[in-house]
Amino acid sequence: MSFISFISSLFIAPLKLLFELFYYYAYKFTGSAGLSIVVISLIVNFLVLPLYKRADEIQAEEREIQTTMAPMIKHLKKTFKGDERFMMLQEYYRINNYKPIYALKSTVSLLLQIPFFIAAYDLLSGLKVLQGESFLFLTDLAKEDAMFYIGNFPVNVLPILMTLINIVSGIIYTKGHTLREKIQVYGLAAIFLVLLYHSPSGLVFYWLLNNVFSLVKNIIGKLHISKSADKPVNTKLELNKKSFSLVFLSGVVLAVLTGVMVPSDVVVQNAAEMTNTLSADPHNPMMYIVFSAVTAIGLFLIWIPVFCVLTPKAEKVYSLVLPAMAAAGVVNYIAFNKNFGFLSNKLIYDYPISYELKEILINLAVVIAVTALVVFITLKWRKTTRLLLVVAFIAVSFLSLMRLIAIGIDTAGYNYSYSNTAEEVSIPLSSTGKNVVVLMIDKMNGQYIPYLFNERPDVAEQFDGFTYYPNTVSFGKFTNTGSPALFGGYDYTPDKINARSNVPLVDKQNEALLTMPVIFLNNGWNVSVVDPSYANYQWKPDLSIYDGYEGINAYHMSGVFNDRVPELADVGADQEARLNRNLFCYGLMKSMPYFMQAAVYDGGNYLCMDLNNKSYRGNSLHIQNGFYEWHLQEHAALTALCEVTEITTDPTNCFFVMSNGSTHEVCLLEEPDYTPALYVDNTDYDAAHEDRFTVDGVTMHMDTHYCNYAAYQCSMEACITLGQWFDYLRENGLYDNTRIIIVADHGYGMGQFDDLLMSDLGFDAQSFNPVLMVKDFNSTGFTVSDEFMTNADTPSLAFEGNVDNPVNPFTNNPINQDVKSGDLLIYSSDEVNIYTNNGTRFEDSNGFWLAVHDDIRDENNWAYIGHDY
Asked: What is the DSSP string of 47-97?
């Protein structure tokens, strides 16, 4: 964090958030960008009016003191010189209880204006909603007004009018003031004219309204002064230390809670995923907590105390309200911390925030009780409240520290850059030898294939030679439990992994990822590996697990080909801005009562008006705004297959295994071409083509989950892209001599298939139904087989006819499919985080085991085993 960023986060960010809050709701209720500027100007000016009133009183006091002292100071300066003059002036100041530094009091009003101006400038100068919006005589609030031109020079009326109003206001305000103060006021007006002359008219309009408000304030102020000239005004900053200590301690608790504890809870869940790989400069996610903490300090320890100091009449209210807020915030987060599915690195939940009325009322009752108790204790025993706040501070600080240490451990030695460039990726495939390709398409549902190929027969033709296995099961419903067996075979099913309880999970994952590459390498094959899932239990695969094997070429492709995608140009900076801003907003939201959380969450937008409109912000069945950058990144890697394929005439056989998440990071695509678009609305197309979801009398339900269409469309996009690569292989004589295995680590349970809903057992087998398609050497036609398969068959399918009697190099067990003769154990667990579930066994208090055999679509073939095995 640079010094400028630090200062901005500390002083400007809290004010900008406040402005944005007002503007958001003003725009929501008025629907007018221009009228919203009027509303925000009025609200902000009335909000800060007590501050400016107090600042004016302080300036008036300083002005009066300096006027009284001026004759004697002039006399002393004229009479004495050098050190004697200095000593005489210092003695005179001492007699009058005055210090030269008090002269800064005359600049209090100016010092207050600067951060408010910068915050407004930062918000309104680039606000997307102003673009193209007209208001009154202004044709575009995002551009200078340019009422007319003198030659090529635009004459902007608003800045000129603003300056004139400022001058009139200054004339009234500085009447009877010193020349220095007049120069300060008029000089400031000139500076604003220069700064804002070419600024967007929306920003200048806002500042013009502020000047009008200031003019009215000065007129009323002068009238009020003339009527109450004889009344003494107390301008001393008398601070009740006991009350202020409560304000300060409450601010400390709230700052740590919202700025450190809650954000660190988010980052610690998956520090690597919180790394913005789309940024031009990926960095430790701990920095997002730093931004959040600094913003929280700015709000709770700078601006709120400033309001408290400058509005002494409200000091008692602050000393009662803030301790209650701190206590309620801690209780809300500790006792009522409810989540709504997986929280993405964009701080968006899988499901909307929604509470039942009973939950809201219980939470509200507790909040009211806590508030009443704290207020009562504060009124009766302030020392007790201070003690409780100190205890709360120690508690939240300790919990925060534990999380920060965990994040530090998780990110220690983490490499935020990729191991290779796009130009360095080279996947050799032989035109004279044999090739085996394993494509792990993460989370691709197995039952989608008939519907995809029914809709797009042209894509089905590109999959000539494949055999589709719909009756396929995976051993887990997430990557950590479902992928090891895919890569390493039946030695790495969850039950076998747990049986080797003396070996860390990370080592067993690495063994699984190494199994096929090492065996093929030892049999003289060229070996290429791309993006191996959870290598070394890192979100971004740690390719160093292959360093000890000369001849295995491992690459990153996900993220390396981002420059091939124009839509990704701006979203990296947008994601950075989103995390820097919204992590603190998330902390605020989680400390609030239930009835307020949905309004602040705002569908994952956190009341933000100015994030890049290319950024993806949510899920729906048919409509979507923005690009989902993580999907674009994954699909860019899949699209690059033609580019990275190296055609070789060397007869050496080649093995290539790749993991890709384009079907995992799902989003809506524009139909019928299935391409990304800034704005997607498939409502009419989906309604007109509902029949495509019924094939051979079996209907796939598309209204059971918000991801139904997104998952289907991304699967179609993946098939289209793979089909293009297959055509490339055909054109270059590489298709017939290549065995291709398309397989997923798991499916995704969305209740789309009636025959996979195991109602008696209470689970959806779609979660355990990955895609599996195999094209053998020189095979033709497209066939469907109902043979009972698992994704753990992948190594056997890859080795068949290529490696005789393959043996796992780590367990020394033969690699085959013999275990399918009996029941297979499936582990259903939602503990997906490899940074917490990383011991020696898969542990989940809510997890359970299932047994299955033969046809997975027959509920009679499933059995519930229990939580333990």
From this structure: HHHHHHHHHHHHHHHHHHHHHHHHHHHHHHHHH--HHHHHHHHHHHHHHTT
Percent of the chain's residues with pLDDT above 90: 53
- 580 Cβ contact list (under 8 Å, min separation 6): 9, 288, 291, 292
pLDDT higher than threshold 80 for residue 107: no
pTM, to two decimals: 0.75
Where is mean pLDDT largest: 39-43, 269-273, 417-421, 714-718?
714-718
Q: 232-239 long-range contacts, Cβ below 8 Å, gap at least 24?
A: 233/57, 233/60, 233/61, 235/57, 235/58, 235/60, 235/61, 236/61, 237/58, 237/309, 237/312, 238/312, 239/309, 239/312, 239/315
The helix-helix angle for 382-411 and 241-256 (nearest 10°) equals 30
What is the number of other CB atoms lying within 10 angstroms of the CB of residue 642? 14
The pLDDT value recorded for residue 591 is: 94
Q: Where are the beta strands (DSSP E) in 483-569?
A: 526-530, 552-555
Across 657-673, average pLDDT: 95
Q: Which of 567, 559, 511 is nearest to 537 (CA)?
A: 511
Q: Are strands 824-828 and 848-852 parallel, antiparallel or unpaired?
A: antiparallel
Task: Give the tens place of pLDDT for each residue, 266-286.
Answer: 998 877 778 877 766 678 888
d(C-alpha 575, C-alpha 605), whole Å: 12
Average the pLDDT over 619-635 and give the result.
86
The closest of 768, 766, 774 to 743, measured between CA atoms, is 774
**Rounded Cα–Cα distance for residues 91 and 30 (Å):** 61
Distance CA(868)–CA(849), nearest Å, equals 7
What's the one-letter identity of residue 731? Answer: E
Q: Are strands 738-743 and 435-441 parallel, antiparallel or unpaired?
A: parallel
Among 205, 213, 207, residue whose Cα is nearest residue 34: 205
Q: If residue 535 lies in a helix (H) or strand (E), which one and from where to where?
A: none
| CA-closest candidate to residue 607, choices 14, 18, 2, 24 | 24
Cα separation, 26 vs 510, in Å, equals 54
What mean pLDDT comes out for the span 202-228? Answer: 74
Domain boundaries, the chain: 3-227, 241-411, 422-570+612-776+784-866
User: Looking at this protein, which amino acid is placed at residue 810?
Assistant: F
CA 311 to chain centre: 37
Q: No. of H helices and E strands in the chain?
A: 27, 23
**Contact criterion met (CB below 8 Å) for 198 and 137:** no
The H-or-E segment that residue 784 falls in is: strand 783-784
| All residues at 6 or more sequence positions from 464 whose CB lies less than 8 Å from its CB, including other chains | 780, 781, 782
For domain 422-570+612-776+784-866, give the fold: Alkaline Phosphatase, subunit A (3.40.720)
DSSP code for 343: B
